[in-house]
Amino acid sequence: MSDDRDSGAAESHAGSQPENAESETGHERGEASELSLRDAGENDLDAIWGIESSVFGAEAWSREMMREELTAPHRRYLALVDGSGAVLGYAGLLAVGTEGDVQTIAVSPGARGEGHGRRLMNALLDEAERSGVREVFLEVRADNPVAQTLYRSLGFEELGVRPRYYQPDGVDAVIMRLEIRKRCS
31 to each of 24, 35, 42, 82, 169, how far by Cα in Å? Predict the structure, then answer.
């Protein structure tokens, strides 16, 4: 169910290790504050749904689908939060056996361009590795070169294309795979 629907590198329903002690400077309103990653759960649904619907528009997952993702077995969701606890981004991983799938990743528009998408992806890949995953898959919109560049820089390789995968726009999905042992930072 991996998905990358928008034009920014950090929007991808495709989708970290919690880095609670690590923080970055930046804020969607331009104020300096500490940003950190933490586990996301059902209590984050309102904030995550707000980002989901604003970033992905007509292609957004339903609120109930997002709730299911946050609570389903074999899933790990992370939230990027500011010093006040406000969620500015999220990402999710499905890990079963030796395979993982980036379910989704999104960063609110005001927090983009500061490396948060890369940070979320690296945290998901760290989690995948800790879970014994050997391969991670994702889909990314064919019309999203920024996200494709990010994923390639992490070591993902293109496997193929799913025609008209993203609806309602009918945009193709590029299927990508990362062998964890070939991972780049």
Answer: 12, 11, 28, 10, 36
What letter does residue 3 receive in the DSSP assignment? Answer: B
Count the helix, strand and coil residues of the chain and give each as a percent rounded to the nearest 5.
30, 35, 35
CA 174 to chain CA centroid, nearest Å: 16
Strand blocks (E) in 41-170? 75-81, 87-96, 99-107, 135-141, 157-166
Q: What is the DSSP string of 25-39?
A: E--TTS---EEEEEE
Exactly one of 77, 90, 151, 165 is catalytic; name it: 151
Which DSSP state fits 97? T
Among 139, 157, 165, 166, the active-site one is 139
| Spatial separation of the C-alpha atoms in residues 63 and 45, rounded to whole Å | 8
Cα 102–135–12 angle (5° rounding)?
A: 20
- 151 catalytic? Reply is yes
Taking the C-alpha atoms of residue 66 and residue 87, their distance in angstroms, rounded to an integer, is 15
Structure tokens, 62: 């339903």
* Chain CA centroid to CA 155, Å: 16
At 49-99, the pLDDT tens digits run 999 999 988 889 999 999 999 999 999 999 999 999 999 999 999 999 999
d(CA 74, CA 27): 31
This prediction has a pTM of 0.83
